[in-house]
Each structure stands twice: as structure tokens, then as C-alpha cells.
Design a protein that fits this description.
This is Fibronectin type-III domain-containing protein. The protein is built from 2 helices and 26 strands. It has 364 residues and is mostly beta strands.
Length: 364
């Protein structure tokens, strides 16, 4: 009996060892399966996908599955029949069964077709069949913008600014040779007076306007341009990739300053018809004056004993920034008054020639 028990024990041990050995030898041999591979816009503003053309940083997306789990997906590019790993393809992001590689196509040659594919590898080292091969034409944004067209720049070179000379609106049209995708340009404005060497960057990053001229106003640097002065300007165009070009340098001139006209349209009106004396003992005076150069205008306000400038006019207010004034009254009677405009360069109308007499109103 003891001998039989010993034999049975040995047989049991052999069976267990054989069984365990069989379990250890059983390994996974089922490879992963790639369901799909696509190329999509990465959402990066430099990315572009249109049919069989790609540009910038695009997303190559693989969906793969495996019975024990996909460990990694490797991407390969084929060009001139020489398969090579895609640069940076070890930096692949994973979300469940989706693997994404951000393909930086600017590292490749422009206007050549490239074919990309992928394989999936599981934890046991099994490799999937090669995915579908996607062939795309790579377009590299390697051309700088065109210089701003001189024919589009306003004011034209050597222009003399007559109308609205105090402020000038610069305008131009820019474009870029890259059309896949259309480039969103931005501009820097260089502006100065007296000499091209005095130009400095006045504004930067001005967004390109589609289908219209892009503009910039000199009021952003000088509220009023100086009469009889030359001004110089140019435009730097820049694409999203940092490549830039500069335009020709243009010049315009503000001519001799025009003096403001005499004030007009008085209120109360210049009339002999009497006005009821206001109970508060004050009256609001107003008038109109438009400077021909659109310069800023201030006013001096005079009261006199008679209708002419020889009738002892008295200055009652000065440096008025608006064409109005509220005046205290001395009682009923006849009042002679007149504002005298002065632009920001000190020019005034000739009082005796442009305003031979003062305005009048009567209070009773």
C-alpha cells in the first residue's frame, strides 16, 4: 500500500508539472486590427486639409483594437519607395482605441506626394497588417507675402493733401502667394515726418481686411498734421509663419495752413426783434465755424458797446473749446457780441475783413 501511494503521488506531481508547463507555453498570437486611418485638420491655425492636399500640422488618426490591448501604433512615410518612420512618430497620443499623430508636414519637401501608413503592436509584440496607405500632396507655406501693391497705397506717393489735411487715412491692399489655405496677413505701419529716416513703427499686428483696403489713421500718432511738412510711411506685411516683406516708402505733404472762417449762424439771431429778458439773468450764446483743414478751433468771445470792432470790444471769455457760451446779463438792453475762432496753429480770420460788424440782440 505504501508503495502504491508513493507511485500515485509521483504521478500526480508529474501531471501537475506537465499541466503547468502547458499553461506557461500558451502565449497570445492574435495580432491587433486597424479599423481605419484618416488625415484631418488638427485645429492648428497653420493646418490645412483639402482633398488630396495637406499643409502645416495635420492629425493622422488610427483606430485599432486587440484582444489584450494595443500597446502602440507606429507611423511610416514612403517617399521614392523608401519606407522611413515618420519624424516624431513616437509622440503619439491615445484615447481609448484611437491613436493620433500630429504630422508636421513643414519638415517635408514642398509640392511632393507623400504616402503615410501605420501598424499597431500589442503587449505580446504581435504586429497588425499595414493600414491603408494614404497619399497626399504636401504644400509647404514657404513664400513670404507680396509687398503691398504701390498702386493700392493711398494717398499716392508725393501727394499734396488739400482736403481734411489735419488727419489723413492711410490705405493699402496686401496679398500672399500661398493659397492653400489663404494666408491671414497682418501689417505694421511705419510713419514719420521730415525724412524717411524718421519713420518708426506706429502700430503693429493690424488685421488684414478681406476684399477691401486695410486702413490706418494718422490721428493715432498726431492729432493734427503740421502744415507745410512732408510725411513718410511704409507697410510691413507678415504671414502667420513670420515671413514678411516691406512696401515702397511713400511721401505726402500737408500744404500751407488755411485760416478758419469767421463764425456764422449766431443764436440768438442777429436781429432787431427784441427777446424777452430771461428770468434767470443768463443767456446761452452759440454759433458755427468749420475749419477748412479740419484743425481744432478754439474761440475768444467779445462784447462791445456798438456794432463795429471800433466800439470798444471787451474780451469776456477765451480758449472756448466749443462753439457756445452761457453769459450773465446786466439787464435789459442791446448787446453786441462776436466770437473769434483760432485754429491750433494760431491762425484767425481777419476781424475787420471777415467780420465787419458784431452781432446784436435786444432784451426787454
Amino acid at each position: 500500500m505504501k508503495k502504491a501511494s508513493k507511485v500515485l503521488s509521483i504521478l500526480t506531481t508529474v501531471v501537475l508539472v506537465v499541466g503547468l508547463t502547458g499553461l506557461e507555453c500558451k502565449t497570445d498570437t492574435e495580432p491587433p486590427v486597424i479599423q481605419s486611418i484618416t488625415i484631418e485638420d488638427s485645429g492648428n491655425y497653420r493646418a490645412y486639409v483639402d482633398g488630396d492636399s495637406i499643409k502645416g500640422i495635420v492629425s493622422v488618426i488610427v483606430n485599432a483594437s486587440d484582444n489584450i490591448g494595443v500597446k502602440e501604433v507606429k507611423f511610416f512615410v514612403n517617399q521614392l519607395e523608401n519606407w522611413e518612420p515618420v519624424p516624431g512618430s513616437d509622440s503619439v497620443t491615445q484615447q481609448e482605441d484611437e491613436f493620433t499623430y500630429h504630422w508636421q508636414t513643414t519638415l517635408l519637401e514642398d509640392s511632393l506626394e507623400y504616402t503615410i501608413c501605420a501598424v499597431a503592436i500589442d503587449e505580446a509584440g504581435n504586429v497588425s497588417d499595414t493600414s491603408e496607405k494614404l497619399t497626399r500632396l504636401v504644400r509647404i507655406p514657404n513664400l513670404p507675402p507680396y509687398p503691398v501693391c504701390s498702386d493700392s497705397m493711398r494717398p499716392a506717393d508725393d501727394a499734396v493733401i488739400d482736403d481734411s489735411a489735419a488727419v489723413v487715412l492711410l490705405a493699402w491692399w496686401g496679398s500672399d502667394p500661398d493659397t492653400l489655405p489663404p494666408q491671414e496677413l497682418e501689417y505694421d505701419v511705419f510713419f514719420g515726418k521730415g525724412s524717411p529716416n524718421n519713420m518708426v513703427k506706429m502700430d503693429s499686428g493690424i488685421a488684414h481686411k478681406q476684399d477691401t483696403l486695410t486702413t490706418w489713421s494718422t490721428i493715432f500718432t498726431e492729432e493734427h498734421l503740421v502744415p507745410e511738412t512732408d510725411y513718410y510711411w511704409m507697410i510691413l506685411s507678415r504671414d502667420p509663419y513670420g515671413q514678411d516683406t516691406v512696401s515702397d516708402t511713400f511721401k505726402f505733404t500737408r500744404p500751407e495752413n488755411k485760416q478758419p472762417p469767421a463764425a456764422s449762424s449766431p443764436d440768438p439771431p442777429d436781429t432787431i426783434a427784441p427777446i424777452v429778458y430771461p428770468s434767470e439773468g443768463e443767456i446761452s450764446l452759440s454759433w458755427n465755424c468749420q475749419d477748412p483743414d479740419h484743425d481744432s478751433v478754439s474761440y475768444r468771445l467779445y462784447l462791445a458797446d456798438g456794432p463795429t470792432w471800433e466800439d470798444n470790444p471787451q474780451l469776456i471769455a477765451e480758449d472756448l473749446k466749443t462753439a457756445s457760451y452761457r453769459m450773465e446779463l446786466d439787464g435789459p438792453g442791446t448787446y453786441y457780441w462776436r466770437p473769434v475762432p483760432e485754429d491750433n496753429w494760431g491762425a484767425t480770420p481777419d476781424s475787420t475783413a471777415s467780420s465787419p460788424q458784431l452781432w446784436m440782440f435786444i432784451l426787454e
